[in-house]
Amino acid sequence: MLERPGTPLRLVEASDPRPASGEVRVRVAACGVCRTDLHVVDGELPNPKLPIVPGHEIVGRIDMVGDGVNALEAGQRVGVPWLGRTCGQCRYCRKGWENLCDRPLFTGYTRDGGYATHAIADARYVFALPDNGDDVATAPLLCAGLIGWRSLRIAGDGAKLGLYGFGAAAHIIAQVARWQGREVFAFTRKGDDAAQAFAKTLGACWAGSSEDAPPEPLDCTIIYAPVGALVPAALRAVRKGGRVVCAGIHMSDIPSFPYDILWQEREIKSVANLTRQDGEEFFSIVPKARIATQTVSYPLTRANEALADLRSGRLHGAAVLVP
Ligand SMILES: [Zn+2]
Ligand SMILES: [Zn+2]
User: Fold this and answer.
1) Which ligand has the nearest atom to the CA of 87?
2) Nearest ligand to the CA atom of 273
């Protein structure tokens, strides 16, 4: 549990929460550690609920069902994502852009999440999962996979795709892009030979430093690292009419850049949150694309260590907490 941004998480004994009407309680089997959790813990996102239980890549089984929930039942294996609830009434919700809702709740940010033994979720935003999957391997799909999928869709259907920051999201999306028949170009921190080799094992045709130019102009790029300086770098990497997608929730300031690298109808776009439809599309692709995640498990009691390893860039793949 996080009591105050900028302080370590504390392990707290609490009585098991009870689901209200329309909610379910999930016994957590695994919860992925996402970069957004770091932004919450480090105080880079405004107005978290405090204290807050972080974590929005939850896989587990329902162990209690609130009144009025018919679509889910006790014992069912489910995933709980970042999008915890939307209002259904604002102009964004009415247009089908629930990812931009004016009055949302986000798991692990404005409602308690999955760094815990149990989590409460609004049943309408929970994804049913196949009964027999590997819980640890599935956890990173709940955000790195889902937001990754939305960012890939928004990047368009260009055949030559660049990925900046080869962590949890990129390692999943590289597999989806290869399955779609695209060429993947992976950009990592300078000198991160291990990440570059990892990208190649996942089918990247080229891997290099984010300071390098790709061997040929790209159709689109997605930036997963929270580094604003990558925006001009990615603009330089795309062809005329190419698109740069910023997939993170938080990024350091973007340095000023000459207009001529945006000129010729190049575009910059951000991706915010997810819709339930993104989830349904993505989970239907997972078995077809045979996505295999690379994970590093930590016991829940070592959550601070998992966050520190993610912060330092030491991880290749995705950290997952197991209560
Ligand atoms: Zn809304
Ligand atoms: Zn996330």
Assistant:
1) 1
2) 2
